[in-house]
Amino acid sequence: MNAPQPLSQDKTQHPGDDPYLAVTHEVFNQPTALENYNLFAQDRALQEAIDREGAGAATGDLKQFGALAGAAETIELGFRANENKPVFNTHDRFGHRIDQVDFHPAYHQLMSIAMENGLHSSPWTNPGTGAHVARAAKYYMHSQVEAAHCCPITMTFAAIPSIRKQPELAAIWENKILANSYDPRNLPDGEKQSVTIGMAMTEKQGGSDVRANTTRAYPIGAEGPGQAYELVGHKWFVSAPMCDAFLVLAQTKSGLSCFLMPRWRPDGSKNPWQVQRLKNKMGNIANASSEAELRGALAWMVGEEGRGVPTIIEMVAMTRFDCMIGSSAGMRQALAQASHHCHHRSAFGNRLSDQPLMQNVLADLALESEAALAYTMRIARSLDSQHLEHERLLARLATPVGKYWICKRVPNHAYESMECIGGSGVMEDCIMPRLLRESPVNAIWEGSGNVQCLDTLRALHKEPDTLDAFFSEAAEARGSDARFDRFLAQLQNDFADISDFEYRARNLVDRLALLMQASLLLRNSDPAVADAFCASRLEHKGGLNYGNLPSGTDPAAIIKRATPVVE
Ligand SMILES: Cc1cc2nc3c(=O)[nH]c(=O)nc-3n(C[C@H](O)[C@H](O)[C@H](O)COP(=O)(O)OP(=O)(O)OC[C@H]3O[C@@H](n4cnc5c(N)ncnc54)[C@H](O)[C@@H]3O)c2cc1C
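Above: the input record for the complex with flavin-adenine dinucleotide. Below: its predicted structure, written as tokens.
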């Protein structure tokens, strides 16, 4: 038999190639992977926000965390955790009910990073100037790596204000909730030094309208706050069902009340709340979400009987804030991917990021991302200063406005960023499909868009001063841009009559958000960013897609500011 002949005879041109393989082409004009970069050091807008909002002292810590979040190994964890869906097992091999969800080790590693770095705890363990801001910055970076596991991190973080309403329960649980370590074992909380907390409100027939919940709570002995009850009913959505305990809403004879329900009973037996199945989600894959039935599950009442919503709303307010951080992070990561790609890719003879039409798109995406971050970090400062009346009023109104607006801006931003990358952006080995699939989730959970608008309306009715606080804060930019001044005056005028507010709520809330974002950018950002934001968002000229910045704006400056540099 003849020996196989090399397909290419031209060995002088390809001296290093295997002579038995055809040399078909050279790979060029492809970007390097966006990895091994510092998510803090390569994010100018984030660094400026940290200084501005009072967390400058955390810069060193944040820089360290930014390097960890940008390391190739950490980024890889995000991919692994999403390629391997959580698996639910009702029973062990001997037939005992266990309600066990098994995750890929990458998920556990991400959880460890988050908890060891205090993403669930730091503003409670070290409160004060910059505490929420610094924690938000870490969450913003970590969520860019992988967003889904941030759900239990958020819920654990957010549970503290609600649990503190019942001091004897807080005395048992708080130290373990705030421990900076992660213990995923399916054991009674008494045997663990650190725990995670979930929330179970949503039912099939109720959803947003939790007053329609049918799950009932039966007192075991004495009734009232801090007392033990048994819960019977169901929950249609319970994310992170491996949490060690959950804040649950259930009806008593006095109405909807809030309860703390552990996974295990204190006697070491399994608490009879049973996971029925895991949700088959389009995104948020690494995070398990479940349906559950409560079959006499032991739980203790938190807060006043019949005041379940005001009790759990303390937790919900915090989760809504985290939705703003997570959505801002999603836009930042999409923008980083798009701008990095276009910086390293040429078409028709020129670098993509130097071509006018692509510059318009990229700069527009960058404005959206920076405006979201600026708004979120301003609210983080408010959370650090709740003892000040202005900050309390501002956070009350600005949280539903921001949760509505920022979360809603993400899906189209993710899609446009994907398109900047072209066909490779659609492939599963790129992070973009994950960012796109994750993008609607923050808008829908923790109170969907319309519910946020209605909450804005509720805040205006109950505390009209919230609107004054919002406008007075925004008006600090008055006089710096004529377009801003006109927008502010028109919006104030439109709020003079809120008789059909419910019907017009989206329009008014949209404009409140734009007003605050413009004000923050005018006061604090690069003039090119502020100018283009006002030109494209405050004076509507009809174009609805990204890439609608008018002539005269400076896209190159905006893109340069936003593009991460990989050494
Ligand atoms: C991935 C995922 C995980 C989740 N995890 C949890 C969890 O851990 N714990 C938990 O309790 N819940 C969880 N949820 C549930 C989530 O909070 C609810 O889906 C959400 O609150 C909306 O409720 P619903 O799905 O019943 O929709 P509905 O309440 O039926 O709302 C449907 C639509 O109607 C709108 N709407 C409602 N009321 C009004 C009104 N008065 N006027 C105008 N429009 C209105 C809403 O904005 C929404 O757009 C999760 C959801 C998802 C998608």
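Notes for the reader.
The pocket of flavin-adenine dinucleotide is lined by residues 198-202, 207-208, 237-239, 281, 284, 289, 441, 444-446, 448-451, 454 (CB under 6 Å).
The domain at 44-305 is CATH 2.40.110.20 (Butyryl-CoA Dehydrogenase, subunit A; domain 2).
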